[in-house]
Write a structure and sequence with these properties.
Helices cover about 45% and strands about 15% of the residues. The two termini are about 25 Å apart. The chain has a 7-stranded parallel beta sheet with strand order 3-2-1-4-5-6-7, with helices on both faces. It has one domain: NAD(P)-binding Rossmann-like Domain (Rossmann fold, 3-Layer(aba) Sandwich), CATH 3.40.50.720. Helix 1 links the parallel strand 1 and strand 2. It is of the alpha/beta class. Helix 1 crosses helix 8. It contains 8 helices and 7 strands, in the order E-H-E-H-E-H-E-H-E-H-E-H-H-H-E. Bound molecules: nicotinamide-adenine-dinucleotide. The site of nicotinamide-adenine-dinucleotide has 28 residues, from helix 1 and helix 6.
């Protein structure tokens, strides 16, 4: 397969905008950080992974803050600091998640709560923390990350799939509350994206065949394909898009 062309769209409305991305140190999140920085946005991101975060900040000019998103108080403090330093956050990308597999028969109440905390709870509290800043900015765009896994009835990670289904409910449940303040909120639903982690952990020859059978389009789905949609949804070009799920999966579900 020939290497895909880099993203070509430029969104003037993103230049100078304060963008906040969760889970930006690796995977799709790292590509999001680079893609928004390339649009000349003022990008800040949080992640657990300190070394990867720092090195991405060095190469992109984005600001990195180490944060475990289960600590939503710290997340809110960081978001307040970002607003003070860069101007009010007007784009929030709730990207962070953890798809660690688990057998439902072995899930304890504590592990269940942890899966919800790592995959769902922080997204709501990031939105809550961003709201006053988006009001100050005169509006905003929130992009929540879903997953096609639960559409596909994927087993072995109920805490994750339940959270990802809830993200879509949360998006629709907040769209009307936020719409009056000119704040848009959408879910971006990726298919199976070939990040280094996915390739290393899950995608052997058999899974490659499964992906090829599943997708209508036979090319590998890459982080930049997801970024293309995220940039659009964040930009003013998407000014009348809210409350929806936008699926980028090569035509699988
Ligand atoms: N890769 C895929 O195939 C795929 C498919 C469907 C949906 N998605 C969704 O896209 C988004 C990005 O996926 P990805 O594959 O890049 O994920 P990933 O697991 O590779 O990366 C997630 C990032 O979030 C960070 N993170 C995890 N827990 C955290 C915590 N408690 N505090 C702070 N940071 C934390 C990780 O360190 C990592 O940098 C996720 O929401 C994921 O559910 C991905």
């Amino acid at each position: 397969m020939t290497a895909p062309a880099p993203l070509t769209n430029t969104y003037p409305s993103l230049a100078g905008r304060t963008v906040f991305i969760t889970g930006g140190a690796t995977g799709i999140g790292a590509e999001l950080v680079s893609a928004f920085a390339a649009q000349k946005a003022k990008v800040s991101f949080v992640d657990l992974q300190k070394d990867a975060g720092k090195s991405l900040a060095d190469t992109t000019g984005a600001s990195f803050f180490e944060c475990d998103l289960r600590n939503t108080g710290r997340l809110a403090d960081i978001m307040a600091k970002v607003g003070e330093a860069n101007g009010p956050i007007s784009v929030l990308v709730n990207n962070a998640a953890d798809d660690t597999r688990h057998d439902f028969r072995e899930v304890t109440e504590a592990y269940w709560d942890d899966r919800i905390a790592v995959n769902l709870r922080h997204a709501f509290f990031a939105i809550k923390a961003a709201h006053s800043q988006m009001l100050e900015a005169g509006g905003g765009s929130i992009v929540n990350f879903g997953s096609m896994s639960w559409y596909e009835c994927q087993g072995g990670m109920t805490g994750y799939t339940t959270s990802k289904a809830a993200i879509e409910g949360m998006t629709r449940g907040l769209a009307r509350d936020l719409g009056a303040d000119n704040i848009r909120i959408n879910t971006l639903v990726p298919g199976w994206v070939m990040t280094p982690k996915q390739k290393e952990m899950w995608v052997g020859e058999e899974v490659k065949r499964e992906i090829e059978r599943g997708q209508s389009l036979k090319s590998e789905l890459l982080p930049q394909d997801i970024c293309a949609m995220a940039l659009f949804l964040a930009s003013d070009d998407a000014r009348m898009c809210t409350a929806q799920s936008f699926i980028v999966d090569g035509g699988w579900i």
